[in-house]
Amino acid sequence: MQQRQIVAVGMVGCGFYAQNHLHAWADLRPEGAILAAVCDMDPGRAKAAGVKFGVPHFSCIETMLEAVPLDLLDIATRMDTHRPLAAIAAELGIAAIVQKPFAPTWEDCIAVVEKARQHNAWLAVHENFRFSTSMRAVKKVLAHGTIGTPRWARLSWRTGFDVYRGQPYLAEEAKLVIQDLGIHILDLARFFLGEVERLSCETQKRNPKIRAEDTATIMMRHTSGAVSVVEATYAAKRGDDPFPETLLEIEGDEGSLILSKGEKLTVTTQGLTFEDHVGGPLLHWTSRPWHASQEAVLHTNRHMFERFRLGLAADTSGEDNLKTYALVEAAYEAAASHASVKPKAHVT
Ligand code: NAD
Ligand code: 89V
Which among 141, 161, 79 is positioned nearest to 112, based on CA atoms? Predict the structure, then answer.
């Protein structure tokens, strides 16, 4: 099959986080990813993005798809709209990237994957934590076998940062910290330690002003035999808040690695300890404290673009992300049943 040189990208949703997607696509233009059009049901947001990035802007996806030939849709709207928007793309055989959470329910996620399969349409989920510079550095150390086979891990995302200012809808969600943030950390746990056999979970709602759980503590047994603890909270009151960093401790047969605040990686092996800063650079459009998350969008978009252009599945394909989503569902089930739960599997 002739490899595409140019990929025409359409952005659906030009809200809070989509700004990072738009900048990332602009940065990928020299590599052949052409941001060709944007749409948002809020015409003001669509126009602002269209003017800023110099592309036609629309207030509905159908009009955009009629007016501009597109190869790839980047859907950065909220989860309740992901299924219908992804279905429009699939029915037209247009490739789609959907932001996390994939969709509101397991059944919705399955429906999106099945629809894409039915139309042989390329589908991926924008799950960017594993693509961040620091997490790729951790993966490299693990892949080299420097600490041996991972046997135990703690993956921690604890903050008191006011996430509700940029994303006010979070305070009203029926499910919060596991579905919105835990999903990233559960994906990292799969990325570093493999698939999960069973898990247990305790949730708490510590902030009286919000609707759902803002703290979750999840313990997992991986099929490799390893055990991990995934912790996430929006209700920490800590000095030196690490927002938006994920802190890691992974112990293997030959040593350990610790990723601490400031993206400092400490690796111990054969009795020797090495330290290194593994964070990415500030980009012309990123700013502290979000810079690590913003830079991860660039690496994620590049991965999606390159895999799509080569006709290959993304690492976080729709099918792969079902395995991460199954852990979210299992965690809520375990918290409700106070028992350990085996994650669902998508049998095709
Ligand atoms: P937002 O509400 O700020 O933006 C969503 C935009 O989508 C709005 O402007 C809305 O008008 C538009 N929209 C809704 N339905 C539409 C439709 N049918 N057609 C066109 N436009 C439509 O939300 P946000 O905070 O930017 O979150 C968007 C998604 O990004 C969510 O799924 C969220 O979980 C995810 N997110 C991911 C990260 C990350 O990857 N680290 C960080 C923040 C948010
Ligand atoms: O990254 C996310 O998905 C978020 C957060 C609150 C961390 O911004 O929603």
Answer: 79
